[in-house]
Amino acid sequence: MAVGEAVEEVDDAARDGRPAKQRRSLLKELPLLIGVALLLSLVIKTFLVQPFSIPSGSMQNTLQLNDRVLVDKLTPWFGAEPERGEVVVFHDPDNWLAGLPEPSPNPLRKALGLVGLMPPADEKNLIKRVVAVAGDTVECKGTGPLKVNGRALDEPYVHPGNTPCSDDEGGQFKVTVPAGMIWVMGDHRQDSRDSRYHQQDKHHGFVPVDDVVGRAVLVGWPPTRWATLPVPDTFRP
């Protein structure tokens, strides 16, 4: 390199406020930093927490359409199973979403799915409240109340104007939850195609615990809706 060229490179570096070697080092490290960030997001998504978008009004008013919830995916790794009162995200057990419009995610949503910051765009998940677990007998007669093991539940989270049970075909039932299964219902009882309406599927309306992705613990978006999702006192001993 000529002396004049070396002086020119030094002058350029000085104008940038940092040495030329440092600028070259940052350019080399940038792909590594991006790769580490993507790896961390994938690990967090796989083992810790993941955001999910609410696709319908079946959980109103607890959750609103297009809310983003954070789902705890860690505790199931330690053998914890869903409990009564929890709001859970689960994979479609047996074509529960059949006949519903397919989502049309925008490019940003697809990109977030690819890096693990949102579920994959083609992944079919639902979100409901667990009302009964293995060994429980759950029943609805008339418009309610909903009963679990013979005890009538006080359900303040049910959508205003709804009745705890639906007096229609499918809305009337008395079942005992088998081992490894849960029974789920939406808080918007008259607008939720939940366990009640899938009793003819291969699981008889029950959701396999193995299909549960995790428990929704927090409404994270929009900021005006920030709130935790605790188990209601209804289900506490």
Overall average residue pLDDT:
82
| Secondary-structure element order, N to C | HHEEEHEEEEEEEEE
How many beta strands in the DSSP annotation?
12
Q: Given the helix and strand composition, which structural class is it? A: alpha+beta
How far do the termini sit from each other?
80 Å
Rg from alpha-carbon coordinates: 25 Å
Approximate shape = globular
Low-confidence stretches: 1-14
Major sheet details: 8 strands, antiparallel
Sum this structure up briefly.
By secondary structure, the chain is an alpha+beta fold.
Can you characterise this structure?
The chain has 237 residues and is of the alpha+beta class. The protein is 21% helix and 23% strand. The protein contains 3 helices and 12 strands. The chain has helices at residues 3-16, 20-47, 107-114; strands spanning 49-53, 68-72, 87-91, 125-133, 137-140, 147-148, 151-152, 173-176, 181-185, 207-208, 212-221, 227-228. Strands 1, 2, 3, 4, 9, 10, 11 and 12 form an 8-stranded antiparallel sheet that branches. Strands 7-6-5-8 form a 4-stranded antiparallel sheet, with no helix packed on it. Strand 6 (147-148) and strand 7 form a beta hairpin. The longest helix has 28 residues, at 20-47. The protein is globular. The model is unreliable at 1-14 (pLDDT under 50).
List the helices and strands and how they pair.
Layout: H1 3-16, H2 20-47, E1 49-53, E2 68-72, E3 87-91, H3 107-114, E4 125-133, E5 137-140, E6 147-148, E7 151-152, E8 173-176, E9 181-185, E10 207-208, E11 212-221, E12 227-228
